[in-house]
From TrEMBL:
Protein name: EAL domain-containing protein
Organism: Aristaeella hokkaidonensis
């Protein structure tokens, strides 16, 4: 009991997070202390029964049995709370768990009349249902073990070991109690289990920031997970110190840590009704479950940060920006909410002006959209369902289709096309771009194999290469394998790389050389949108330069000598020229006048599915 009181005192002395896990632990402490008091009292009264009133014996013994049953249930509830905090829990465990201890409590309450548990006749005597105290313990330990084993993959090794250790200790206590019925031994095992719980899950320091006063990121996860699980309304205000990393480099880690300690102390003293969290990298979050006024809270913080923060070496002035999350966002899973908040705070720290405020709802919508795009992308890649559209390249002299550019397309579940810039950038960031590029090339090779290119008048097809694809050293060998599989001549495939790819000169040169040695020809796409010049272009085996549409549009709006001179320079280097973004007959004429070889744009055709491209081309050939 003394050890339990020490643990309880330490628990109340330190800050504690208002989550179910903490409440369950506190309930275990209180119930276990009451159980111990009642157990000692009942043993003493039963040993000296002639000295006491019979009614007192009945009351103390009934209360003792009720608390024994409730204690078994509360250890199980704690396990449920741990699983709930991980968004795990088998719902049937929660629904059917009271089915054991409720009947047991009713048996205890009826015992003065039924004598099922015990009887008081010339002292204490066990009744026919005395075994239920063991059955109740065993049932809840079995339930808890089933819940743990069902979620082994989701729990950490530390959590699994700790939870199973608690079950083993309590089971050992039941065995010891059964073998030694006249010795108060179960409380020792319960104390051991409580110590394991406190060290593994409930030590307040586990949830406190290293710099003191406020909670840390794991505590933030735990609180929001409970709010989401139990549908508790709450509001979150996140704020971040502008350019935190730069400040840390300039002023040093010690001075910034002193400032953070001052901020933490200010938050705790000024907003005791809110839970304040230090997340990472100068970012904070404040959570209130009683509908705090976020506008007023933001105003108070902004006013304080107009002043300075004292450090050991002087004072620092820091600017902050905000991210607000309202109660409606509790429909969003807590993990996604935390991740989105962290992303938003990181972005604001780098790019926003001080006192900028952003709604997390906008970021949530953006994240949800990205997750949906990623799901569609993964599904299409796994099922080889990406589509390839073709956009024709026109010979400026004859006006006929002479080639085409392959453009990848992705559809959502409703059959609507997703913007290419959204899913291609995601494919690059998430590591899918190599698979995507290989599938596109394979579909183009299959198209060339299955159609008479000579009859269509198509001499080659351009296939785009992402800059990220160049990071894969086996691109030349993989592309050669794909063409060999479909028996396609390398001259039928022209690879397009963007001007931005030319930043890493050595890597690009090696990759292009490898592909060129395998027979591939290259076009430089979007020329004029990057930083390359004629000197750098000459160092690569390009055969075609594609002028970026912005450059074409600007020239058509206001003609000058720059673009014609540029085209003339490329022509002297024996490079052919393609003008992109042609949308009118006048634009086509202007590009033809400055000697562009090929024209591409919506004026001739938008990108269309392969079958439609074949049909259009055949009709144009017949008309000619």
């Amino acid at each position: 009991m003394l050890i339990l009181l020490v643990i309880m005192g330490y628990y109340f002395f330190r800050p504690r997070l208002p989550i179910r896990l903490n409440r369950a632990f506190l309930a275990i402490l209180v119930i276990d202390i009451c159980t111990e008091i009642l157990e000692v009292a009942s043993f003493r009264l039963n040993e000296t029964w002639p000295e006491h009133a019979t009614a007192l014996l009945w009351v103390v013994n009934v209360l003792y049995f009720i608390f024994v049953y409730v204690r078994s249930y509360m250890f199980f509830v704690f396990t449920i709370s741990v699983l709930d905090s991980k968004s795990l829990i088998w719902s049937r465990l929660r629904i059917f768990s009271p089915i054991v201890y409720v009947p047991c409590v009713l048996i205890a309450l009826s015992t003065p009349w039924t004598h099922w548990l015990f009887r008081i006749e010339d002292g204490f005597h066990q009744g026919p249902l005395y075994w239920t105290i063991f059955a109740c313990d065993c049932c809840y330990l079995t339930f808890a073990t089933i819940g743990i084993l069902r979620h082994l993959k989701e729990l950490s090794a530390h959590e699994i070991i700790s939870l199973l250790a608690i079950q083993v200790i309590l089971k050992a206590g039941i065995v010891a109690r059964f073998l030694l019925p006249n010795i108060i031994v179960m409380n020792t095992f319960c104390l051991m289990a409580i110590v394991v719980i406190f060290i593994s899950f409930l030590n307040p320091d586990l949830y406190l920031s290293e710099r003191g006063y406020v909670y840390n990121l794991p505590a933030f996860h735990a609180l929001l997970a409970e709010c989401w699980q139990r549908k508790k309304p709450c509001r979150v205000l996140g704020f971040t110190i502008q350019n935190y990393n730069e400040h840390r480099e300039i002023f040093g880690g010690k001075q910034m840590d002193d400032a953070l300690i001052g901020i933490n102390k200010y938050l705790l003293e000024t907003f005791p009704h809110l839970c304040s969290f230090y997340l990472r990298g100068g970012s904070y979050a404040m959570v209130g479950q009683n509908e705090p006024d976020l506008a007023e809270l933001r105003k108070t913080l902004s006013e304080r940060f107009t002043g300075s923060w004292k450090t050991g070496a002087g004072e620092l002035r820091l600017g902050i920006s905000f991210v607000e999350a309202d109660m409606d966002l509790m429909n969003c899973p807590s993990d996604r909410l935390v991740n989105t908040l962290m992303i938003s705070l990181d972005e604001l720290s780098r790019v926003a002006e001080p006192d900028t405020s952003r709604s997390l709802m906008d970021s949530i919508d953006e994240i949800n959209q990205k997750l949906e795009i990623r799901r569609c992308l993964e599904k299409s890649l796994d099922r080889d369902e990406l589509e390839v559209f073709l956009q024709p390249l026109m010979d400026s002299k004859t006006g006929k289709r002479i080639a085409a550019e392959a453009l990848v397309r992705l559809r959502d579940d409703n059959g609507n096309l997703i913007r290419p810039d959204l899913f291609i950038s995601m494919a690059e960031q998430e590591g899918y771009i190599v698979r995507l590029g290989e599938q596109v090339l394979a579909k183009v090779c299959r198209f060339i194999r299955d159609h008479d290119m000579e009859a269509l008048g198509v001499q080659w097809i351009n296939v785009n290469l992402s800059p990220v694809q160049f990071m894969s050293r086996d691109v030349p060998s993989r592309f050669a394998e794909i063409l060999k599989e479909y028996h396609v001549d390398e001259k039928m495939i022209h690879l397009e790389i963007t001007e931005q790819s030319m930043i890493d000169f050595s890597l690009l040169r090696d990759q292009i050389t490898g592909l060129h040695d395998n027979g591939f020809e290259f076009s430089l796409d979007d020329y004029g949108s990057g930083y390359s010049n004629l000197s750098r272009v000459r160092q690569y085996p390009f055969t075609n330069i594609k002028i970026d549409m912005e450059v074409v549009w600007n020239y058509c709006k206001e003609k000058d000598m720059l673009l014609p001179a540029l085209v003339e320079g490329f022509k002297r280097m024996n490079l052919s020229i393609t003008a992109e973004g042609i949308e009118t007959e006048e634009m086509a004429g202007a590009m033809k006048d400055i000697s562009c070889d090929y024209l591409q744009g919506y004026y001739f055709s938008q990108p269309v599915p392969m079958d439609e491209f074949v049909e259009q081309t055949m009709q144009m050939n017949k008309a000619c």
